Amino acid sequence: WVPDRVAALPRRSHCIRGPRTGKRATMRAMPYLTLDGRRLFYADHQPHASGPALLLLHGAASSHLVWPSPLRRLPDTRVLALDLPGHGRSAPPGRRMVAHYASAVRQFIEGIGLNKVVIAGHSMGGGIALALALEPPPALLGIILIATTAHLRVNSALLSNCHAAFDSAADFIVEHGFAQAPDALRGKTRQAIIDAGAVTTFGDFLACQQFDARTRLAGVSLPALVISGSADRMTPPRHVDALVDGLPHARRIRIDGAGHFITLERPHEIAGHVIEFMKKVDSPRMNTATDTYG
């Protein structure tokens, strides 16, 4: 990895936003990092904050813009929101295996020199975080798995429609992804999926379909916070229950009435739980060799 010294970009980005907070997040820097001649883009908020950093990994057919302000502007915390390869402003191609995305994230962590980091991943991003926790880099303190499971099953019709009828696939994702959301938010989410493109979306869903860590969960020694919605139709609660039962040091948060796009529906609640977790994993009293996070 060779860091590119890139100043903050002059033009404004269009974000998918959850409920309005009345405040604007301060974006300190929006640089790139180069891997094998291909650039990865990331937004870096409060880069000079002390303590563990939070690295946000988006899900399939998405980008760093999906993370709402309450999660991007945690108090006194460096928050990095990465565009995975082939997504957003990062160079193509995307990947077709979760392990390959995890490899890119591992090199990203090493390339920018993070010493302490917690990874939070939504859906496919959670699968990537889980894959990293199975063979953790030295800097990784814990993982936050949001609307994800140990086996990321994908509807077969959805997978085939990524090529045959991409508009219909985008409609399906939005329809099944939200439990409750205004039409404007649904429309922005659908447009973000269309912008990701059929090829990248198909590759992401193929990566999800092939990912299965169910037999390896006992080997995760790091603390894990697992957050899901009771109305999630894409990662049903029973599958999340199995994930939590298999992880040795996991705490479960279930938010009533929330769907798969839980970070957009309930950003303030998610942020509160993330803040609590970040404080606990940085505590010298936490010893995952003997204690369960809770």
Q: What do you see in this structure?
A:
With 294 residues, the chain is of the alpha/beta class. 36% of the residues lie in helices and 16% in strands. The chain is built from 10 helices and 9 strands. It has helices at 69-72, 98-111, 124-134, 156-164, 166-177, 183-196, 198-210, 237-246, 262-265, 267-281, and strands spanning 2-3, 32-35, 38-45, 53-57, 79-82, 117-122, 140-146, 224-229, 250-255. Strands 1-2-3-5-4-6-7-8-9 form a 9-stranded mixed beta sheet, sandwiched between helices. Strand 2 (32-35) and strand 3 form a beta hairpin. The chain starts with a strand and ends in a 13-residue tail after the last helix. The relative contact order is 0.15.
